[in-house]
Amino acid sequence: MTDKVYNVLILCTGNSARSILGEALINHLGQGRFKGYSAGSQPAGKVNPYALKTLEKHGIDSSGYRSKSWDEFGVAGAPQMDFVFTVCGSAAGETCPLWPGTPLRAHWGLEDPAGVGSNDDEAMAAFATAYQIIHRRVSRFVALDIAAMSEDELKAELAAIGKA
Protein backbone atom coordinates (compact mmCIF):
# COMPACT_ATOMS: atom_id res chain seq x y z
CA MET A 1 0.00 0.00 0.00
CA THR A 2 1.26 3.47 -0.81
CA ASP A 3 0.90 6.76 1.06
CA LYS A 4 0.24 8.59 -2.20
CA VAL A 5 -2.80 10.86 -2.26
CA TYR A 6 -4.57 10.49 -5.61
CA ASN A 7 -6.09 13.60 -7.18
CA VAL A 8 -9.47 13.00 -8.81
CA LEU A 9 -11.28 15.47 -11.07
CA ILE A 10 -15.00 14.98 -11.66
CA LEU A 11 -16.20 16.76 -14.80
CA CYS A 12 -19.58 17.58 -16.23
CA THR A 13 -20.92 20.42 -18.29
CA GLY A 14 -22.32 22.83 -15.68
CA ASN A 15 -20.42 21.80 -12.52
CA SER A 16 -23.46 22.51 -10.38
CA ALA A 17 -24.86 19.12 -9.37
CA ARG A 18 -23.40 15.69 -10.26
CA SER A 19 -19.76 16.73 -10.29
CA ILE A 20 -20.19 18.59 -7.00
CA LEU A 21 -21.68 15.46 -5.42
CA GLY A 22 -18.77 13.45 -6.84
CA GLU A 23 -16.15 15.85 -5.50
CA ALA A 24 -17.72 15.80 -2.05
CA LEU A 25 -17.98 12.02 -1.99
CA ILE A 26 -14.39 11.52 -3.16
CA ASN A 27 -13.24 13.73 -0.28
CA HIS A 28 -15.63 12.18 2.25
CA LEU A 29 -15.21 8.49 1.38
CA GLY A 30 -11.59 8.76 0.27
CA GLN A 31 -10.45 9.20 3.87
CA GLY A 32 -7.36 11.19 2.93
CA ARG A 33 -6.21 8.73 0.23
CA PHE A 34 -8.01 10.77 -2.42
CA LYS A 35 -8.48 14.49 -3.01
CA GLY A 36 -11.56 15.35 -5.03
CA TYR A 37 -12.04 18.28 -7.36
CA SER A 38 -14.80 19.18 -9.79
CA ALA A 39 -15.23 21.44 -12.78
CA GLY A 40 -17.32 22.00 -15.87
CA SER A 41 -16.76 22.79 -19.51
CA GLN A 42 -19.55 25.41 -19.33
CA PRO A 43 -19.90 26.12 -15.60
CA ALA A 44 -23.28 27.31 -14.37
CA GLY A 45 -21.63 29.80 -12.05
CA LYS A 46 -23.43 28.52 -8.95
CA VAL A 47 -23.94 25.22 -7.19
CA ASN A 48 -27.45 23.83 -7.36
CA PRO A 49 -29.01 24.28 -3.90
CA TYR A 50 -30.45 20.75 -4.05
CA ALA A 51 -26.91 19.37 -4.37
CA LEU A 52 -25.95 21.19 -1.18
CA LYS A 53 -29.13 20.04 0.60
CA THR A 54 -28.41 16.46 -0.47
CA LEU A 55 -24.89 16.59 0.95
CA GLU A 56 -26.17 18.07 4.21
CA LYS A 57 -28.85 15.39 4.45
CA HIS A 58 -26.09 12.77 4.38
CA GLY A 59 -23.94 14.55 6.96
CA ILE A 60 -21.36 15.84 4.49
CA ASP A 61 -20.11 19.40 4.89
CA SER A 62 -21.48 21.44 1.99
CA SER A 63 -19.42 24.59 2.51
CA GLY A 64 -16.82 25.78 0.06
CA TYR A 65 -18.16 24.19 -3.10
CA ARG A 66 -18.40 26.39 -6.17
CA SER A 67 -19.12 26.01 -9.86
CA LYS A 68 -15.91 26.49 -11.82
CA SER A 69 -14.36 26.02 -15.22
CA TRP A 70 -12.08 23.13 -15.98
CA ASP A 71 -9.64 25.78 -17.23
CA GLU A 72 -8.60 26.27 -13.59
CA PHE A 73 -6.98 22.84 -13.69
CA GLY A 74 -4.96 23.48 -16.83
CA VAL A 75 -2.83 26.35 -15.53
CA ALA A 76 0.62 26.32 -13.97
CA GLY A 77 0.44 25.38 -10.32
CA ALA A 78 -2.84 23.50 -10.62
CA PRO A 79 -2.93 20.07 -8.98
CA GLN A 80 -1.87 17.24 -11.29
CA MET A 81 -4.73 14.81 -11.76
CA ASP A 82 -4.35 11.06 -11.43
CA PHE A 83 -7.95 10.32 -12.45
CA VAL A 84 -10.58 12.22 -14.44
CA PHE A 85 -14.18 11.00 -14.48
CA THR A 86 -16.96 12.50 -16.58
CA VAL A 87 -20.48 12.23 -15.19
CA CYS A 88 -22.46 13.70 -18.08
CA GLY A 89 -25.59 11.76 -18.96
CA SER A 90 -25.00 9.56 -21.98
CA ALA A 91 -28.59 9.78 -23.18
CA ALA A 92 -29.28 13.42 -22.39
CA GLY A 93 -27.57 14.87 -25.45
CA GLU A 94 -25.02 16.68 -23.31
CA THR A 95 -21.55 17.46 -24.52
CA CYS A 96 -19.09 15.85 -22.13
CA PRO A 97 -15.79 17.64 -21.68
CA LEU A 98 -12.57 16.00 -22.80
CA TRP A 99 -9.48 16.10 -20.63
CA PRO A 100 -6.01 16.17 -22.16
CA GLY A 101 -2.97 14.65 -20.54
CA THR A 102 -2.08 11.42 -18.82
CA PRO A 103 -4.59 10.88 -16.00
CA LEU A 104 -6.61 7.68 -16.20
CA ARG A 105 -10.05 8.57 -17.50
CA ALA A 106 -13.46 6.96 -17.32
CA HIS A 107 -17.01 7.92 -18.15
CA TRP A 108 -19.43 7.49 -15.25
CA GLY A 109 -22.46 9.01 -16.95
CA LEU A 110 -25.75 9.59 -15.21
CA GLU A 111 -28.72 11.78 -15.85
CA ASP A 112 -28.61 15.34 -14.57
CA PRO A 113 -30.93 15.82 -11.57
CA ALA A 114 -30.86 19.61 -11.98
CA GLY A 115 -34.12 20.90 -13.34
CA VAL A 116 -35.98 17.66 -12.64
CA GLY A 117 -39.31 17.94 -10.90
CA SER A 118 -41.91 20.61 -10.46
CA ASN A 119 -41.61 20.86 -6.66
CA ASP A 120 -39.09 20.40 -3.85
CA ASP A 121 -40.01 16.77 -3.20
CA GLU A 122 -39.52 15.74 -6.84
CA ALA A 123 -36.25 17.67 -7.08
CA MET A 124 -34.91 16.12 -3.87
CA ALA A 125 -35.91 12.66 -5.12
CA ALA A 126 -33.92 13.22 -8.34
CA PHE A 127 -30.90 14.33 -6.33
CA ALA A 128 -31.28 11.38 -3.97
CA THR A 129 -31.10 9.01 -6.94
CA ALA A 130 -28.03 10.75 -8.37
CA TYR A 131 -26.38 10.72 -4.93
CA GLN A 132 -26.98 6.98 -4.51
CA ILE A 133 -25.45 6.19 -7.90
CA ILE A 134 -22.42 8.40 -7.33
CA HIS A 135 -21.99 7.09 -3.78
CA ARG A 136 -21.98 3.51 -5.01
CA ARG A 137 -19.42 4.27 -7.71
CA VAL A 138 -17.12 6.32 -5.49
CA SER A 139 -17.30 3.68 -2.74
CA ARG A 140 -16.21 1.02 -5.18
CA PHE A 141 -13.45 3.26 -6.57
CA VAL A 142 -11.91 4.24 -3.22
CA ALA A 143 -11.89 0.57 -2.15
CA LEU A 144 -9.55 -0.36 -5.02
CA ASP A 145 -5.95 -1.28 -4.21
CA ILE A 146 -4.69 0.98 -6.97
CA ALA A 147 -1.00 0.44 -6.25
CA ALA A 148 -1.39 -3.32 -6.71
CA MET A 149 -3.26 -3.09 -10.03
CA SER A 150 -1.81 -2.93 -13.52
CA GLU A 151 -2.91 -0.01 -15.66
CA ASP A 152 -5.02 -2.33 -17.82
CA GLU A 153 -6.72 -3.84 -14.77
CA LEU A 154 -7.38 -0.39 -13.38
CA LYS A 155 -8.81 0.91 -16.68
CA ALA A 156 -11.12 -2.11 -16.90
CA GLU A 157 -12.31 -1.64 -13.32
CA LEU A 158 -12.93 2.08 -13.83
CA ALA A 159 -15.00 1.35 -16.93
CA ALA A 160 -16.96 -1.32 -15.06
CA ILE A 161 -17.67 1.08 -12.20
CA GLY A 162 -19.15 3.55 -14.69
CA LYS A 163 -21.55 0.92 -15.98
CA ALA A 164 -22.64 -0.29 -12.54
Outline:
The protein is of the alpha/beta class and 164 residues long. The protein has helices at residues 18-29, 49-57, 120-142, 151-163; strands spanning 6-12, 34-40, 83-86, 104-107. The chain has four helices and four strands, in the order E-H-E-H-E-E-H-H.
The percent range for strand residues is 5-15%
Rg, Å, rounded: 15 Å
Distance between the termini: 26 Å
The tally of helices reads 4
In CATH terms, the superfamily is Response regulator
Structural domains: how many: 1
**CATH architecture descriptor:** 3-Layer(aba) Sandwich
Low-pLDDT residue spans: none
Read across the widest sheet, the strand sequence of neighbours is 2-1-3-4
N-to-C series of helices and strands: EHEHEEHH
Sheet bearing the most strands, described?
A: 4 strands, parallel
Helix content: 25-40%
Structural class: alpha/beta
Could you give the topology of this structure?
Layout: E1 6-12, H1 18-29, E2 34-40, H2 49-57, E3 83-86, E4 104-107, H3 120-142, H4 151-163
Parallel strand pairs: 1-2, 1-3, 3-4
Helix pairs in contact: 1-2, 1-3, 2-3
How would you characterize this protein structure?
The chain has four helices and four strands; from the N terminus they run βαβαββαα. By secondary structure, it is an alpha/beta fold. It has one domain: 3-Layer(aba) Sandwich (Rossmann fold). It has a four-stranded parallel β-sheet. Strand 1, helix 1 and strand 2 form a beta-alpha-beta unit. The radius of gyration is 15 Å and the shape is globular.
